[in-house]
Amino acid sequence: MSFHNDPLVQICGMSKEYVQRRPFRRIKFTVRAIENVNLTVHRGTTLALVGESGAGKSTVIRCLGLIETPTAGEIWFNGVNALTLDRGALFLLRRQIQIIFQDPTSALNPGMTAGEIIAEPLVIQREGTRQQQRKRGLELMEQVGLPAKWENKLPLEFSGGQRQRLAIARALTLEPKLLILDEALSNLDLINQEMILRLLAELQVLYSLTYIHVSHDLRMVSDFADEVAVMYEGRIVEQKSTAALFANPEHSYTQDLLGAMPLLESICEERYA
Amino acid sequence: MKHRRKLWGALILLAGLHGVVLFAGFFAPYSSSAQDRELPFAPPTRAHFFDIRGKFHAHPFVYGLKDDPKNFGAYETDFAQVYPLQFFVQGSRYRIAGMFYSRLHLFGVGSPGRIFVMGSDGYGRDQFTRFLYGGQISLAAGLIAAAFSVVLGIIIGALAGFYGGWIDDVLMRGGDLFMALPWLYLLFAVRAALPLHIAEWQVFLLLVAVIGLIGWVRPARLIRGVVLSAKERNFVVAARAFGASDAYLLRRHILPQTYGIVLTQMTLLIPQYILAEVTLTFLGLGVGEPMPSWGSLLSSLQQYYVLSSYWWMFVPALLLIPVFLAYYLAADALQERLKTVPL
Amino acid sequence: MRYLTRRLVHAMLLLLAISFLSFALLQWAPGNFFDDMRLNPRISAQTVDGLRVEYGMNRPFAVRYARWAYSVLKGNMGFSFSYNSPVAPLLWARARNTLLLTSMATLLAWLFAIPLGIWSAVDKGKWFDLACGFSTSALLTIPDLLLFLVLLLLAVRTGWFPTGGMVSTGFDHLSLWGKIKDVANHFALPTVGLAVVTLPVLVRHIRSAMIEALESPFIRAARGHGIPHRRLLFRYALPAAANPLISLLGFSVATMVSASVIVEVVMSWPGLGPLMIQAILSRDVNIVIGVVMLSSVFLVAGNLLADVLLFVSDPRIRVE
Fold first, then answer.
1. Residue C312 neighbours by CB distance under 10 Å
2. Exposed / middle / buried, residue A167 (Cβ in 10 Å: 0-12, 13-18, 19+)
3. Which residues have CB under 8 Å from C308's CB, separation 6+?
4. Which residues partner with A43 through β-bridges?
């Protein structure tokens, strides 16, 4: 959990608007999903992005993950302005940023086997022969804690936690620098959450990964995040180190958020002691 | 599972049907153009096991025909001419799958006897033979046209669903246009645009293309729906994040979701298209003589004397029913199966 | 009101597109009346060319289309080469017959389909529904052509109905009532045939629309309030099911128009169908275009009528 001086990701003034227009009508109305977002993430750290539903977290993720283009602002990744790249350079840049989704079931093609799923990024990026791709896939399976002999199983044969591990393995195939977890643990039970968090921590050390973790769950955030950024109505209202945020929340929304979070121990004390 | 049995039943029926038609040369006793001007409109030949003296013969036989002196155009059995029914006989030469020659027929009788399983037409041509050979044309027309429609539907539906925006608008409006036209008149209009004197197989292909052109709208709409929902699925988004191209996404992730619909649509379209070809040929606007499409087998029924006196000329029309039934059963079973398989 | 104008504009555009397409299609046809004429050794090339100029076939495409469109709007649909008379009067006479047939058949079909569909929906799963379902499936597998031929056979064999045409010989000498009876006698079989052919699909759709209406939450709530069955059915469920059914009416016009061609040919009913076929076989371009346009007009008009009915009956559309 050490801070390096150069940030891996720097987002400056990013905004995204969605325009809805009825066909053949002149009225359009714009939805401002995010506005003037500034975010900095340092190498090797974990940033938690919290906020209520509709605050814009997913939009930030989608722009950062280069799935959508923001209407304004800049995204600097590893010293490169991601939005000015041509198609070829963009293709290569994509390898370095990966996303893990909230619902592992929908993130995996139900018709593909585990082995195919993990190897898919290599296939898309056209790297290695069939054998090499398969070998790398099996390595990664072992690394996330899934036995290699399960490579021919379909996603429906895995439990929720195992599917999420599969998704993580897939994300690691191209040796990314940044891993974005879009509420990736929300659908799992607490024990699974714990296990995957531990796995993620191991992987972070092993591969020097940087994480951006989008979450609702402040308790979890307090466990693993180095820094926290709070989003409210499309803007970042606070970004501090975890300790600083919990100790001294400045914005009213953050205060509300913290106040609404009961600790398990205090519940036990209050109600059942 | 009920639908599995239904599906298998239908498929077996269809396979049998198509198999027999495919090997028409073998199953039919004559060639499709063989005429016997002596025996126009002969009724179906009956096979007998008992002769006129009541004696049983293990080997079936048929009697010859002679003109009935009392009714012009009718026949009466000539018990003097006895022809044993033989199996696996050598007969006229035919090609299998357009490549190999053979002379082997399933059954036949020695000349000048004739075995008309479904009677004969005005030129003395065996209707059974023509039915089998005609099946090759009509069934092929239905299959090829349906394949064409479905392929067109896939391309248009996938483009409209995947790219959305004005492409979607234009394509779907075009579809509206197609659906607004009465299909038979559309067929006519295009048929009218074709010259009347072009080669047989060209007529056939053009006809098939035109028939296929009228039915792409429904498959396209359904596929568009599937593509629209599939492209938002997270595994597609993930693949896109890996740098997948549009073509890859369509090929690997999106289109495989459509296979079920494609199959059901095809089984629904095939019988409709077979009927379209038969109707067109019946009206004189399809493939021409002497190609024995089922439509031309039926076209002589437009004459009253044929309609009222020669009932066996109806049989090809009646035999259409099991063909349709088999396809509809298959379509039904496929639809049920689609609902139970999770997407 | 905006809904109606929108639908009207849509219909107009559709007709325009169809007219353009049909005109283009036939202009680019690889063969036409004049080429065939040229093959005839008794007509000199000059005569053919002269005729071409006379019929204005040598002007550029856009000009021909514009002139043709303008004259169509004025009611002049060109000249038929093979019948040697203007196309429009030919078409009107035939169109009237086809309209008579198709509207009677539509009426008949819906007359039976509505009660059958409603009863099937109400008695869902019970014997009537199953019997109905079975018969509609059975009817669907019978090809239209076969049905019409069988009806024709019936006419020929039993002599109860005339076997073709619209009027008997000696028609003019009949009284008015006699005339009506005669025509009715002639179109009984074609109408029945057409109605039977379109019935199964209608019954199926009506049944599913009614089932959907009957199983919707607001009907269940109404039932819970104790509203009597019959009232529930006719005052609540049926109006709710009316929307998809009116759209169905619009669609069924298309199938009716197509099927009427076959009936008319098989039963020798003098409508647009046989005219069209003759025109194609003799390469009479103007009639072909005329019939295609006319049938499209019928279709679009049918759909527009359905839109109007929808507007009138469904308050949800008026609110928009």
1. 12
2. buried
3. C4
4. none
Burial C238-252 (b: 16+ CB within 10 A, else e): bebbbbbbbbbbbbb
Considering only CB atoms, which chain A residues are within 8 Å of B243? 90-91, 94-95, 124-125
**Interchain CB distance below 8 Å, B283 and C265:** yes
How close does chain B come to A239, measured CA to CA in Å?
27
**Domain match, C141 and C41 both:** no
B132-340, what's its fold?
A: MetI-like fold (1.10.3720)
**Record: contact B189-C292, CB cut-off 8 A:** yes
Chain A to chain B Cβ contacts (< 8 Å)? 47
Q: Contact at 8 Å (CB) between B315 and B118?
A: yes
If asked whether residues C170 and C261 sit together in one domain, one would say yes
Cβ of B238 and A101 within 8 Å?
Answer: yes
Ordered per-residue pLDDT tens for chain A, 273 residues: 344 557 778 888 888 877 766 655 566 677 778 888 888 888 888 888 888 777 788 888 888 888 888 888 888 888 888 888 888 888 888 888 888 888 888 888 888 888 889 889 888 888 888 888 888 888 888 888 888 888 888 888 888 888 988 998 998 888 888 999 888 888 888 888 888 888 888 888 888 888 998 887 777 887 888 888 888 888 888 888 888 877 777 887 777 777 777 666 666 677 766
The length of chain B in residues reads 343
The correct CATH number of A3-96+176-272 out of 3.50.50.60, 3.40.190.10, 3.30.70.2740, 3.40.50.300 is 3.40.50.300
User: What is the DSSP secondary-structure string of A242-271?
Assistant: HHHHHH---SHHHHHHHHT---HHHHIIII
Order of all β-strands in the sheet with A7-21: A28-42, A7-21, A72-77, A80-81
Touching B: which chains, 3+ CB pairs < 8 A?
A, C
With CA atoms as reference, report the closest residue to C30 among B285, B207, B208, B198.
Answer: B198
